[in-house]
Amino acid sequence: MKRVLVGGAGGFIGGHLVKRLKAEGFWVRGADIKQHEYSPSKADEFLVGDLCDPQIARAALENVEDVYPLAADMGGAGYIFTGEHDAAVMRNSATINLNILEFGRQAGVKRFFYSSSACIYPEYNQLDPDNPKCDEQSAYPAAPDSEYGWEKLFSERLYLAYMRNYGLKVRIARFHNIFGPEGTWDGGREKVPAAICRKVSQTPEGGEIDIWGDGKQTRSFLYIDECLEGVRRLMESAFAGPVNIGSEEMVTINQLADMVIDIAQKKLSLKHISGPLGVRGRNSDNRLIREKLGWSPSKPLREGMRKMYDWVSEQVTIARAQGQVEEVAGVGAKR
User: Fold this and answer.
1) Cα angle for residues 276, 279, 281 (degrees, 5° grid)
2) Least packed by Cβ within 10 Å: which of 24, 59, 75, 111?
3) d(CA 310, CA 151)
4) What mean pLDDT, rounded, does the chain reach?
């Protein structure tokens, strides 16, 4: 039985990846600064600790063949684009990757997956919301719009340097707005799909929900199940990447909000307010993944958003029953 490590196993993508790998028959060690918030981990072993700590990282990497280091300091637009968390975002995430690679190399890890981000793409190619340019070769000359994007780009180069210098097997994917149940849905670090679902669920009939900016900024969003299918196909392929893993179904934030309102079968209006926005337009370009893996995501956005809304609505109901205070924050677009 192949032994693997999932860093960030207490988080959204990491938690789902543990379930996927267990279903495929792997022995899985999870590692994170916290246990999973929404469901008990299915990992065979779970190490609670900060992977920025060299001792924790060394312990996590013992006797594993593959590593999926998904732990990172991140959040939605309200966290990434205020500028208040830039140092922590860069320091924490870069430190984790430095620890994983060096101590993993020393421990004899065979393969590393790295989850990069569409945030590495240059802002100058994403000024037109209707025609963003996000093919893999367009990453340079580099000009990400956030320190989060710069850290992701640095870490891509770090993984590739270890591959060149030490002969490690590395696979790199650039995620485009992954969403689904069992992720952050309130508190300021949530991303657009979760934030809209929360606000629609909380808002009574005839009310209005806040949207940051004019709502005409564009994004594509990929449901977690398709993300993991892409990750596993890439990991088992001979292609190192980087490659986009995202949907090509681009929508405006207004359209996404209207979709959720329709799913909820409510009559609500949109109120546009000021707030952090990120780039004007972003969409996955899936030509390379189709060429290299013979596959690309194809599920309609609405299908995933229905599942997302049902789950977030359930969390809102639970929070109300527990008497928790809920804050309806603005909705923008991180990726």
Assistant:
1) 125
2) 24
3) 34
4) 93
Coil, helix or strand at residue 209 = strand
Q: Which CATH class is domain 3-178+221-245?
A: alpha beta
Between CA 270 and CA 216 the distance in angstroms is 12
3-class SS at 80?
A: helix
SS3 210: strand
Burial of 186 (C-beta count, 10 Å sphere; 0-12/13-18/19+): buried
Segment 290-332, tens digit of pLDDT: 999 999 999 999 999 999 999 999 999 999 888 764 444 444 4
- Is the pTM here over 0.90, yes or no? yes
Report strand pairing: 243-245 vs 169-175: parallel
Alpha helices, DSSP H, located in 61-85: 77-80
Strand-pair partners of 27 = 3
Q: According to the model, what pLDDT value does residue 332 have? A: 47
Are 41 and 17 contacting, i.e. CB atoms less than 8 angstroms apart? no
C-alpha angle with apex 221: 233 to 20, nearest 5 degrees? 35
Other beta carbons within 10 angstroms of residue 62's beta carbon come to 14
Domain residue spans of the chain: 3-178+221-245
The pLDDT tens digits of the residues spanning 17-35 come to: 999 999 999 999 999 999 9
Backbone conformation region of residue 2, classed left if phi is above 0, alpha if psi is from -120 to 50, else beta: beta
Q: What are the residue numbers of the active site?
A: 148
